[in-house]
Amino acid sequence: MKSFLIAVPLLIASTFVQADNTCGKVTIADMNWSSASLIANVDRFILEHGYGCDAELVPGDTMPTGTAMIEKGEPDIAPEMWSNAMKDALDKGVAEKRLRFAGKSLSDGGEEGFWVPQYMVDKDPSLATIEGIIKNAALFTHPEDPERSGFYGCPAGWNCQISSGNLYKALNLEEAGFDLIDPGSGAGLSGSIAKAYERKEAWFGYYWAPTAVLGKYKMVKVDFGSGIDKDEFTSCTSAENCLEPKVTMYPPSLVQTLTTEKFAAASPAVFDYLSKRSFKNSQMNELLAWMEDNQATGDIAMEYYLVNNKDDWMQWVPAEVAAKVEAALDNL
Amino acid sequence: MAESSWLKEFPEMDRVDLLAIRKGLDSAYREFSREYGEVIESFFDPLLTFLVWFEKLLLTTPWWIVIITLTALVYLASRSWKLSLSVVLSFLAIGYFGMWEHTMETLSIITVCTLLAIALGIPIGIVMARSDRARSVITPLLDIMQTMPAFVYLIPVVMLLGIGKIPGVIAVIIYAIPPVIRLTNLGIRLVDSEVMEAATAYGASSTQRLFGVQIPLAMPTIMAGINQTIMMALSMVVIASMIGVKGLGQPVLKSITNQYFTLGLFNGLAIVALAIIFDRVSQAYAKRTQRHM
Amino acid sequence: MPEPLIQIEGLYKLFGKNPKSVMSMVHEGRSKDDILAETGHTLGLKDINLTINKGEIFVIMGLSGSGKSTLIRHFNRLIDPTEGVIRVDNIDVMKLSPKELEEFRRYKMSMVFQRFGLMPHRTVLENVGYGLAVQGQSKAAWTAKATEWLETVGLAGYEAQYPSQLSGGQQQRVGLARALCTDAEILLMDEAFSALDPLIRSEMQDQLIELQGKLHKTIIFITHDLDEALRLGDRIAILKDGEMVQQGTPEDILLNPADDYVEAFVKDVNRARALTVETVMKPPSGRITADTIAEALVQMKALKGNHGYYVNDDGYQGIVTLDALEACSDDGSQQMSADIWQELPAISPDAMLESVIPETLEADYPLPVVDEEGNLKGELSRHNIAEILGGAEKHVEEKI
Ligand SMILES: Nc1ncnc2c1ncn2[C@@H]1O[C@H](COP(=O)(O)OP(=O)(O)OP(=O)(O)O)[C@@H](O)[C@H]1O
Ligand SMILES: [Mg+2]
Fold this sequence. Notes:
- The structure holds three protein chains of three kinds.
- Chain A is an alpha+beta fold.
- In chain A, 49% of the residues lie in helices and 18% in strands.
- In chain A, strands 3-11-4 form a three-stranded antiparallel sheet, with helices on both faces.
- In chain A, helix 2 (34-50) links the parallel strand 1 (25-31) and strand 2 (54-60).
- The radius of gyration of chain A is 23 Å and the shape is globular.
- In chain A, 45% of the residues are buried.
- Helix content of chain B is 85%, strand content 0%.
- Chain B contains 14 helices and no strands.
- Chain C has a six-stranded mixed sheet, with helices on both faces. In chain C, strands 2-1-4-5 form a four-stranded antiparallel sheet, sandwiched between helices. Chain C has a three-stranded mixed sheet with strand order 11-12-13.
- Chain C is of the alpha/beta class.
- Chains in contact: A-B, B-C.
- The A-B interface holds A 63, 67, 143-145, 155-158, 181-185, 187-189, 191-192, 194-196, 198-199, 294-295, 300 and B 15, 19, 22-23, 26, 30, 33-34, 37-38, 48, 51-52, 151, 154-155, 158-165, 241-246, 249-251, 253-259.
């Protein structure tokens, strides 16, 4: 009884103390792919130990997280948002002062395109170009119809479904004998690559980088021979009602850190960190390859990264925060 | 930290060892799929051909012939005009709202999955009912099949067979077959022991007992299992479409990622309509054939 | 000369995981409770020996759990013994191969079950014909036979009904018809009538007796009701905790119970309904056969009592008392005549005790027991009846 009486004031006191020198409770979307998970874990560690936040990871995915941030103001941070995927909604959110973009999580932007496995190009270098692929359409047998060829598109409902569908049209792939296969989900799409790769089968379809899949399975981006026509891409290729799509390579897509306006306003110091925190694609590919090799989860990769790349991340935060984070790292 | 740290923290396996195990098993599976994938794939070829053919049949047959045929089947099974009429109305509505193709695709794969689940499940249930050892082996397997998240086995299946109908059928069957197995087993085990004794006492052979007594008497329970299997198969439509199975699941997925609530609702309702039709027809059929038990 | 049909020797049955290993305990004579407590095995039957003759109704009785069902299921090997020999028609049933066993069950025995054991998904007709259908007979063949037997048990017209549409009594008639339909020589009936109410039950007993009169099957009938046992049984065996405590004719069991268990069983039975006059009558105390009164007086004097039954060439005539003889002793040469003897109803030795109780109690003298040919076989007095029913005075008082 006595100890209880003592404990209650203690408890109250401790919450006050905590509230005093922290940025409070922060939720960070932990997207279900490796690079995003790594970044989310890095953010969590630095926010928790550097800024004294009570940071918590919540599971996320592009569409649900984006929508929840607009509608509910939750979670506070989406560390790797492929903003093209729901461009209109996010822009509207920013305009309505619900969201704020911090900075580019991937400074080079995401890489999208149509890919074929390296081993196919090794055999026939012409397969690195769209003409070569169309000429050799018969190689890419449709899994359910031996008469046809198969092109693995983007899963239904994803924004890339529109762009890959438009390019499929623009490249006249249908006449070339290709059926557009809906893989149903990201897992379905990556699964189909893994299956083809393990058996050295033919595969031709849409994918993006940096990803563990492209880190692990060496693929070659097919050259459309058209170069990048950014205007055509934004006005038509990525628009649902594009009537006469033209051929263009994918421009690099923006990959940004997104926060809610509420959070950005309340924690300017953290927002400042988020604006600086950024990875190069080459660096990220390396990290993803390391993760893949070691089957590492986001938190393990985070440790690996923070320990081995101090010069990197110390530039994102003020010196005293860096010191606190370093101390926490030593304590691990 | 002292040696007694395991008191505070769970004595975990060494990260490196754990990693070695995970990597070892994964590469073993890769090895396996590289080695036998093609053989296994070709084993399923006839089924794939049939699936493709059946889907094409439903898609290319004029809609009104499909509706007439389905209604006739429903009437034959249930002998109920009401039910038959509601089938006509549901399919007209489905077609009118532009979901005909997806519905036919779903109908074809669910029909095949259900038939396969029954064809596999009833014999397994019988084996399980006849041998306690078989039961003690199969029961935990069924528990795993019902509770294991579908993606855990979906992706290995995709590794082995690619995306599309066959892995879809396998995933649906894994999830949907347990009820028919369990209830076949249960139904047979619950057959009145005196009736079984009577059959034995009159010299019935074990096949005569199985087909003349056990299965007919277990039929109400087996039908309940089939009914549940159909329902569970339909509930897997969306998951199956995540590995490239065409049908009503695709628009549902699309509506999930894009918050197209109405699209989701319409296609969801079409799945529900199929479910209700399957359910009512199988129940009406069961009731009609088992009036005396 | 009775011809043995079923012989059981040294039959033991232990229920449990590993019965063979526990048999040694059984042979050491440990009790059923001991064995259960120590090994978890239930002793179902212990050292059963019996012989059942062709054409008899052999009743097996015992309290619930005494092993009756277990025993009867050994005859057609629905249960396999742990030890012992079962011979039917000189075939060692234990040596039959699975195929032979099927044949044996199809043609040699049929069975009627306590809860009927009818197949709910088959019509009444299909149920009755089941045994024949299993034998592989054509539908036409078994339909004809089944129809016939349904008629015999009084269920013509119910062919297309399903068992669930019938009353309990009707269902058991179907069960009986099914058993009779295969024409098997042996009929096993496990508490066949126990689930029926008393009225239907006694009707079914009558029907069984009537059928048996025509068919002369060998019937093994199980019941826990002694009245039923006494009514149907040519011989009765009594089981207690898996052991055979007594075997014998109904009279044997009633009159000479082997131990307290049997006695307790018999105590409650309505003996008046179970015993015939013959089994309880005493030898006739006096028989007067003389032609003249003088001779009759001489015969009478030689008797202990003061009356005798008058029997002449035409058989039993009536009772003659000492007083009546002395009243006309003036003329010793007078022929015996109807004036001298009084009429006194005779009773048949086969009559059930119950049916003669009123007459016996009303009469001033013990009643003579006279068979169909008119031979005087014995006499039955009030005292006799009181003695026999002594164990169940209650019943007698109710009757009076
Ligand atoms: N399959 C079995 N496993 C274990 N014990 C059994 C089994 N069958 C019967 N027994 C036991 O054998 C004993 C005899 O049972 P049985 O059914 O033969 O009795 P019964 O005389 O027919 O009784 P009732 O009049 O209630 O039918 C009981 O103690 C019972 O518990
Ligand atoms: Mg019994």
